[in-house]
Amino acid sequence: MQQWDVIVVGAGAAGLMCAIEAGKRGRRVLVLDNGKRVGRKILMSGGGRCNFTNMYAGPENFLSQNKHFCKSALSRYTQWDFIALVQKHSIAYHEKSLGQLFCDDSAKDIVDMLLKEAKDANVQLALQQNITAVSFADGQYTVSTPELSQQCQSLVIASGGLSLPNLGATAFGFQLAEQFGLKVLPLRAALVPLTWQPADKAVFEEISGVSLPVTAEANGTVFPEDMLFTHRGLSGPAILQISSYWQPGEDVTVNMSPQTDITEFLAAQQQAHPEQELKTALAKLLPKRLVEKLIDIKAVNNQPLKTLHSKSMRQIADTLHSYVFKPNGTEGYRTAEVTIGGVDTDGLSSKTMEAKHQPGLYFIGEVVDVTGWLGGYNFQWAWASGWVAGQYC
Predict the structure, then answer these.
(1) Where in this chain does the entry annotate a coiled-coil region (predicted)?
(2) 252 and 312 belong to one structural domain
(3) Is 108 helix (H, G, I), strand (E, B) or coil?
(4) How many CB atoms lie within 10 A of CB 297?
(5) Cα torsion at 204, 205, 208, 212 (round to 10°)?
(6) Phi then psi for 351, rounded to 5 degrees?
(7) What is the pLDDT of residues 263-296, one digit of tens each?
(8) What's the pLDDT band for 166 if we cut at 50, 70, 90?
(9) pTM above 0.85, yes or no
(10) Which domain holds residue 318?
(11) Per-residue pLDDT tens for 37-73?
(12) Same structural domain for residues 284 and 302?
């Protein structure tokens, strides 16, 4: 049986960061992963360019039952620390929007950087490893696979959530947490497209591909970004963001013209072009296909602008500034970028990420009940929580 100081389960962002930091401390580290290659989520993220952090990342950008838990890790390993690592490896990057940083070339640059750091820290990697059992006795963990058993003092779980099962996601981390007496909070797909009710699908699937800047609101939270109509439902950054706050059965309220007051716009258009039809005027603000669809379903009634009273203008404005969709559900883990819920932070030390009542057992990254917004925040939590655990495991 092989002996290690640390075994990390999961060769993703959090697991590799933790392994590197532990290795730098002289710990003998083995990383186990069930896939054929490391960093699978890194490689596919950001359209293959990896949105590796966000310049504005802070605790307010994360959802958790304990909103204070993430503060310690995020303050001790910041986005600027990770940016410094990227710069050290001469990886070219750019800000796309809203502080989102992407590789100029390829997400593979980030994976190669982590592999180089891991090699320099003498970290050992073992891929295509399916763990069949984990046990604890006499201060040692035994991790068994069909090939062999390994022992370690510190066991770090960085196995991710349930999102993107085609990349190898499993419930392993949650099951292991429960095996050792930690509570797992309810899980659901997040940063995920919302799906149509059958009646809405019949109406809106015809305008699949139409996109526009909106604000999307659910449960008192509002996100300004683009929204995309699809065959299956609503997508785009604004919808992915709001999906983390939306609950089944609830509405999503969309402001289709967040930058322009429609009442004022119509009054100005009426003065300038009284003979013009409403649909022609609205098509200056909104995608033409969307305007035609809204008229088709009588959400607004087409008429010459000169026939509009101020009350009618306000009614049209109210409809378009707060259009209510009632999603049927989400597309689920198949397309979700992250999993909300996970290992209850009450059972973990925010300073070390170690389980409070199970010595030497650590949980980091997405498996923990900390979920970031869209835009590089979840990677920053992975780097930060992995870095912190790597100082202690």
Answers:
(1) none
(2) yes
(3) helix
(4) 10
(5) 20
(6) -80, -35
(7) 999 999 999 998 999 999 999 999 999 999 999 9
(8) confident
(9) yes
(10) 193-331
(11) 999 999 999 999 999 999 999 999 999 999 999 999 9
(12) yes
